[in-house]
Amino acid sequence: MNPEFMHRAIACSSENLDLGGGPFGAVVVKDGKIIAEGSNKVTVNKDPTAHAEVVAIRNAAKYLNDFNLSGCEIYTSCEPCPMCLSAIYWARIDKIYYANTREDAKNIGFDDSLIYDEIPLAIEDRKIPMYSMLRDEALQTFKKWTEKSDKTEY
Ligand SMILES: [Zn+2]
Q1: Is the pTM of this model over 0.90?
Q2: Domain CMP/dCMP-type deaminase spans what residues (predicted)?
């Protein structure tokens, strides 16, 4: 836990306001140094997935030339939303430090509690209708993957 890294994540969030983005910033740290930064690029890039943490993870993965960010820590100016939290898990990041809470984000109009509430619900009870189809056809690719001997597992 190094306040210097959180200062930088917060600075990324603050500087991003002048660039037309949302008030969120994040940095990825490895071996005691910042290897990547990110700020929210949703509106600027017209990319709904370009949250600060996702942008920082993409930059860190590019920098390390690896999809596995184990050994890294992320400092984010706000508690991660469910998408970013998932991305952090997929990236195998060791530890998360956050500054603002999700309640703070909710208070300024960024409410991700709906998504947190949706996840534990049964599929049929969620707001966005979701239907399984052509499962047998899709399973063929899963079968091929299982049998593939030269795959890169993650
Ligand atoms: Zn997010």
Answers
A1: yes
A2: 1-111
